[in-house]
Design goal:
A two-stranded antiparallel ribbon has the order 1-2. Strands 3-4 form a two-stranded antiparallel sheet. It contains 4 helices and 4 strands. It has one domain. About 5% of the residues have low confidence. With about 180 residues, it is α+β, with helices and mostly antiparallel strands. The longest helix has 18 residues.
Length: about 180
């Protein structure tokens, strides 16, 4: 069974999870989200994958309290919430925990969905009619596959994200030719 080592606000060097299984279950219960189809083992593994996604996918404002030794992005110094209130240096913001729960639900339903291993041959489709041949890259089976959860995560995390870090991955640039 995957062992969760939950960040407790001390800047642990061995943490692999942002939330506990109990926190996830309460979050889901409070929101009417049914997770009864998953075993505790599946949920623990999904929490670990979701936590890793949130570590790798975003650059956060401020500095970790335990510098590079700390495995999770929070707790941090010099961070404020959406209303400008300081986040305490021993605090794991609830918005960050909620984002982890949302990603965990996706990871429980489809393991590695948020960090897929892509094989080029799996994303290319070729169509040919006579001598005309067209190749398409199939990144998703449906354009809305992961946008909803990413929008929720972005909405929860935006106050903590570094403005100079990475561009908003949920929008693009349109050019008219």
């Amino acid at each position: 069974m995957a062992t969760l080592i939950v960040e407790d606000g001390t800047g642990r060097s061995d943490a692999n999870a942002i939330v506990s299984l109990a926190f996830l279950k309460t979050y889901c219960s409070d929101r009417g989200k049914d997770i009864s189809a998953y075993t505790d083992e599946q949920l623990n593994e999904a929490i670990i994958r979701a936590s890793r996604f949130l570590v790798d996918a975003f650059i956060y404002d401020g500095q970790k309290i335990n510098r590079r030794l700390q495995t999770m992005p929070f707790p941090r110094y010099a961070v404020t919430d959406r209303e400008g209130w300081p986040v305490l240096p021993n605090e794991i913001p609830y918005e960050y925990q909620y984002a982890c729960c949302e990603v965990t639900l996706v990871e429980a339903a489809t393991p590695f969905a948020m960090s897929p291993v892509v094989t080029q041959s799996d994303v290319i489709r070729t169509e040919a009619v006579g001598s005309i041949r067209v190749e398409y890259a199939l990144l998703f089976t449906d354009p809305s596959d992961y946008r909803p959860v990413l929008a929720v995560v972005q909405d929860l995390l935006w106050p903590f994200l570094s403005s100079g870090g990475i561009p908003n991955t949920l929008s693009g640039v349109a050019t008219r030719v």
